Amino acid sequence: MIFRLSKLNSCRRTTKFYCSTTSTNSVQVPKKSLQQRLKEHLKALVNDYKEVFVDCGRYVKEHPLKSGLWFSIGAAFLTCQSLNPSENTFRARVIEKSNELIFIGKSARNPEAEEHLQNIESYYNENQILRLSFGLFSVILRNFKSSRCDSFKENCSYIQPSYAEIVRNHIIDFGFLNKWWIFDRKMLDFDINPNEWKENNKQ
After folding, report:
1. What is the pTM of this model?
2. Which of 59, 113, 125, 172 has the fewest CB atoms within 10 Å, measured from its CB?
3. Phi and psi of 174, rounded to 5°?
4. 154, 161 Cβ separation under 8 angstroms
5. Superkingdom, according to UniProt (predicted)?
6. How far is CA 110 from the centre of its chain?
7. Distances in Å between the alpha carbon of 75 and those of 30, 52, 58, 71, 137?
């Protein structure tokens, strides 16, 4: 029993000696410079991107039809996003057609196209034109609120238009693929008055 206790005490002394020596004589790792750390980081980043491209190439070879479909969807998405028309293009289109309509006689003007242009100009004068962008397409709305007027009609929640009324009466145009579809359709025959042809046929 005494032999075991002495052996245990000797083991404790050697353990304490080992811990003290390791704590005092610890190995210090040299610090890396900022340039070395940046170089290692860039190298790891390049290797990660390289593995991603290799995996993508392998996936395209193994699934050509599925990959082609995804690439087509992505290309269509980016094309629609890049060709999403802005409000400036809509305003420029309105001014262009208004200038062209001036040089057409009153009797030869299309009354529907002329009324549409006059309504848009009145909305701009009242500061009621609002463009909403949805990424792939845009919508031009007639805003029932104006920043220049703060009346009771614009603040009362009981007489605000519903979503159905906004869709039916407040949507002015729909922009997609760098084109304003409703405006271009209404301005297609802006220099032809159908009523004039009807009167000539009656005579």
Report:
1. 0.65
2. 125
3. -130, 120
4. no
5. Eukaryota
6. 37
7. 50, 20, 21, 6, 15
